[in-house]
Amino acid sequence: MDLLQLLISGLANGCVYGLIGLGFVLIYKATESVNFAQGDMMMLGAFITLGLTNQSYVGLPFWLAVILAIVIMGILGYLLEVVFIRPMFGQSQIAVVILTIAIGFVARFVAGLIWGHEPQSLENPFVGKDVGFGGLVLGLDEVVIIGTTLALTGGLYLFFAYTRIGLAMQAASQNQLAAYYMGIPVKRIHSLVWALAGALAAIAGVLFASKGAIDPSTGLLGIKAFAAAIIGGFGSLPGALLGGLVVGLIEPLSSRYVAAGVSQIMPYLMLLLVLILRPHGLLSQVKAKKV
User: Fold this and answer.
1) Residue at 76 is within a domain
2) Which of 7, 90, 182, 197 is buried deepest, with most CB atoms within 10 A?
3) Which pLDDT score, from 0 to 100, does residue 288 have?
4) Would 276 be classed as within a structural domain?
């Protein structure tokens, strides 16, 4: 029973990694750019929710604060693409990577300036509550994280499969020039993808903060989520979620059955193993291009 509870806790953490990884993959598939500020956007989403809901700040109801934080982070993602990323069009991918790393540094600085560097807890209706399934006792926060991730995964599948915007995003990700000739506003689609990634980051931030304290360095969690996305297959949305779950499970298991200090390095050892044995990830989507 203890092992099962350990697995559920690992799945909950893995869901958060997977949601951050989804943001990485969405932006990469649409623009072939890597947003290394995705983890910091997650951190900002959590802090914005904290600032809106805790009584020491604005004091809005929790669910209203969450919705506003998602909208704010969606707008921020949109503006980041328009103001910073779009002018970089035609530059090398290294330049874009460096730019997003710099944006991440700025985000952590701003968060520290506004909310301080001490860990803070988000007041939420899940803390301290348990859900019982037979003899298994689970934290309500873990159940909510797993349930929300499953619902979001299903929602994203329906969005990309059946909506005009979702289909346009898929077309733009597969062939930008062909999509442009078909009348799809590729630049606007790119901005919408960044907005969607920002909204996903906000949700991941709220879910992460519902389990524990947050501080500006929480944004560095994006590095682990990036590794998870590569493990799953960097061009695959299901792969990003799968990679997150793999990382989320391997951490508590290695901490319990190997050594406590090993758990932090295990995701990266797993990354090395996957890159050696299956370089394109567990759910790779490699397509040969005709030239």
Assistant:
1) yes
2) 197
3) 45
4) no
